[in-house]
Each structure stands twice: as C-alpha cells, then as structure tokens.
Amino acid sequence: MITQHLLNQAISSNIQLALSEDIGDGDITAQLIPATTQGQARVITRETMVLAGIPWVDALFAQLDSKVKLEWLATEGTLLAPNSPFLRLSGSARSLLTGERAALNFIQTLSGTATKVRELVGLLAGTKTQLLDTRKTLPCLRIAQKYAVGIGGGQNHRLGLFDAFLIKENHIMAAGSIAQAVQQARLIAPNKPVEVEVESFAELEQALAAGADIIMLDNFSHDDMRQAVTHTAGRAKLEASGNIDRDTLRAVAETGVDFVSMGAITKDIKAIDLSMRFI
Asked: What are the residue numbers of the active site?
C-alpha cells in the first residue's frame, strides 16, 4: 500500500531529479525575459485523458517558485475531453517557462497511465476481477505510476521486493520446493502476503498445500483458469498473468480469477498530448 509517507518521499525525490536534469546550472533561455515580467498561462489536453499528477505539479512549483499561483480547473481522476483546459498558472514568466516541461512531463506520463487503466478497468465491469499493476514501471517512477494506477481505478500489486513475497520459478528451484519456499517465507516475515507463481496443476496443488495466500497462474489457458478456480474453491486468491492484453482481458476475467496483472499498464505508456500557452 502506498502510504502518505512513501508518497511524499517519492514526490520530493521525483521533483528534485526532474528539476536537476532540466535546469542544471540555470535556465539560460528564460533569462531572455526580464526578471520582473509576470505571465499567465493555461494548460489543455489535446486528447481524452484521466487527469493524474496534481501533487507532483504542486510540489514542483512550490520548490521552483512558491509565488507562482496554480488554479486547477479539474480534480484528480477527472475524465477530460480533448481541448479541455485543466490548469491556469500565474506568476513570474521566467518561472512558468522554466517549470513548464518538467510539470507537463509528470502530468502527461501519469495521466497516460491513469487513462489506460481506466479503459481496462471498464472492460472488467460486472466481474469480480481486479486489475493489478506490476513492478514493470518506468525507472525511478515506481510510486508515481502505481499512484496513477489507483487514480485510474486499478489496484496495486506489491510496491517492491520489501512488502510481499512473490515466489517464482527461480526462487522455487533455489529454495528446493514450493513447500520449503513458503515455509521459509512465513519464518522470515509472518505478516507479509505470500504469493506463488505456478505453471501447472501439479504446482497449483503444491502451492495450495503449502498455504499460499495468492497463486499466480502463469500463462494458463482460459479453460485451465476455469478449472483452477473450481479446484481452488476459495482456498487462495488466484491471479492470472502472462500474454493478457486488451482483447483478452474480459475473457480472462470471466474465468472467475480474482486478479489480472498486466505489466503493460505501466511500462507501455503513451504520454498524453498536452499544451501550455501564455494568455
């Protein structure tokens, strides 16, 4: 779960890196404008999007120039139509221009994530299945993208290697067996969820016998997923993963699995087309 502390840490780290890589020793182009010049600008989306990333933009301008005024015309999670304005800014013209790219980068990336998730969650309507993200996120934007997944209506899988066990093929081989891996996990961190990835019904039975909390069905066919749901009968949560896309998501959900995890919702993201113009 993304706590407020983790979120604040991520925002602070993201902002520092973004401003450092963009401004460096100073914005030389902004120096073409007199320091006393004031400006007003608005930001619009050129395509349909779910707005996500407001906390990052607020923090960015608070650090860059706390005198810049931001007026949000839409709230986080709002579905916006093309050409909709969603932010007005006023203050030092230099500051507006210096912060423009870093601010838009956060909004267009996180909104792109939230928009894709909102679309896929819509395909699950009427089923019990929840859409999960993975650790396949953009480097250094793990918390930011998982936050955006939540804004889009999806759910977060584990945040990293520290908050839950996911015992995969190589872990099983190194530990000796599914039973030994699960037993050791219970000893290491008794209160952490234990998930086991399985590739066959034999491994499914082993994971159930070992008492796994969640079992990931890796590349199971739809028929096999249905059989797994019937066989498991609620003894563990079931997660489908592997080769699932927009076209197959609904069919997978209709097998009765509890979760579907998709790396594409965070790693294959198309940034939203945004525009900031002085007014």
From this structure: 101, 136, 168, 197, 218
